[in-house]
Structures are given as C-alpha cells and as structure tokens.
Design brief:
- By secondary structure, this protein is mainly alpha-helical.
- The protein has 7 helices and 2 strands.
- The protein has one domain: Orthogonal Bundle (Arc Repressor Mutant, subunit A), CATH 1.10.10.
- The protein has a two-stranded antiparallel sheet.
- The two termini are about 30 Å apart.
C-alpha cells in the first residue's frame, strides 16, 4: 500500500463499531452502514475482505449479520490495514527498491524514518483501544 485508502480507513471504523458493541450479537450490514455513514454496498465489500482475513464472522438468516472473529484487544490497526491494503509503505520506493536513485537519494532516509514511525503507531494501536475511546460507544472496556 502506498497511502491509505478509504477501504483501510473504513475497515478500521467498522471493526471499532463491532468491538464497541460488546454484546456479540450479529449486526446487519445496513445497521453498520447507517451508523457509520457508509453505503451498505461498500460496507459489504469491506466486510467480505475482513471475513476472508479472518477478522469478522458472518451469520445467515433473519438474525444474521456480522461479529468480530478476534479479540479486539489484540487486533492491531496494522493487521486490519494489511488485510485491506496489503503490505504498507508510505512511498513506493521503500517497498520495492526499484528506484534508480535509491543509493543516492538524499530523502530516502527521511521516508524510511517516517514509514517506520507510521508502522509503529499502527502496530501499537488496537481496535479495542479505539473502541474504548470512541465517543458514544464506550461500552467496551479493556
């Protein structure tokens, strides 16, 4: 990933929403969409990818919907973003080393430091922490 897309940002929001509920009752995509201000179709696209990554479970039927499949206290934002975006890097030249100027680039070290700092923030932040701090969703406690 170079840059953060809406899929990564919205996936994080959807997981925070599910973590904050704490009741483990499946939530329909329409309810999630309305709560988060995202279209139901886009919510479904994101939830399908999160399910494939093992981060949510889906349930069929009248009482069906989605729940978290992992403990939000151990689920890092880095894991969510990687599931949605793939390998993370703030600039493409750091990820694939294909830049002709890599050996002589005067800014490469700066981009590397920024990249490491960002990865550290995402690795140290959990969905549970975000859910606990979410306004109006403080049902979750760590």
């Amino acid at each position: 990933m170079v840059g953060l897309t809406t899929k990564g940002r919205y996936a994080t929001r959807l997981l925070v929403y599910l973590a904050a509920r704490q009741d483990a009752v499946p939530v329909k995509k329409q309810v999630i969409a309305e709560s988060e201000g995202i279209t139901p179709d886009y919510v479904e696209q994101i939830l399908i990818r999160l399910k494939a990554a093992g981060l949510v479970r889906s349930y069929r039927g009248k009482e069906g919907g989605f729940t978290l499949a992992v403990d939000p206290r151990t689920l890092t934002v880095a894991r969510v973003l990687e599931a949605m975006e793939g390998k993370m890097s703030i600039v493409a030249c750091l990820e694939n080393n294909s830049c002709d100027r890599a050996a002589s680039c005067s800014t490469r070290a700066l981009w590397g430091k920024a990249d490491q700092a960002l990865k550290q923030v995402f690795t140290k932040t959990t969905i549970g922490e975000l859910a606990a701090a979410a306004p109006g969703k403080a049902e979750f406690t760590i």
